[in-house]
Prior knowledge:
Number of strands: 9
CATH topology: Aminopeptidase
Number of domains: 1
Mean pLDDT: 93
Shape: globular
Pfam families: Acetyltransf_7
InterPro entries: Acyl_CoA_acyltransferase, GNAT_dom
Helix content: 10-25%
CATH class: Alpha Beta
Domain N-acetyltransferase: 2-152
Strand content: 35-45%
Distance between the termini: 26 Å
CATH architecture: 3-Layer(aba) Sandwich
Organism: Weissella hellenica
Keywords: Transferase
Oligomer: single chain
Low-confidence stretches: none
Amino acid sequence: MIxxxxxxxxxxSEYMRLLLIGDGDESKVYKYxxxxxxxxxxxxxxxxxxxxxxxxxxxxxxxxxxxxxxxNNQGQGIGSQMxxxxxxxxxxxxxxxxxxxxxxDVQNILxxxxxxxxxxxxxxxxxxxYNKKIFSNGVELQDMxxxxxxxxxx
Length: 154
């Protein structure tokens, strides 16, 4: 059975391997790793997935900054269950959750749409600030696609 929980410890860097699945730029991950809330999905003392929600400049909006499922456990619904768990946990804090993904990350976009997120906008040239080029589906990522989910009306 998979257990979902908020990580309350102070050794977040132990989850870097998984966090780098969700965000390929280690320097970017280190900038937000100690912000917000870190959530885990664990089974038999093995971490299968991680996710981070960080506050934004708008106190009503939390950003799903990172969500990643270990490669060997993808496609089993763990990510969707993690989203459902997180949204329930942060409902008292935020009315909206924002997430961004690469413009060519079609699988990610479909994942968020299936989990009730809707298109909100685009951050042009977002990936220009990354240390190395990131590709998805053979296409270099350039813009970040933004999606939001209202969590007060669920």
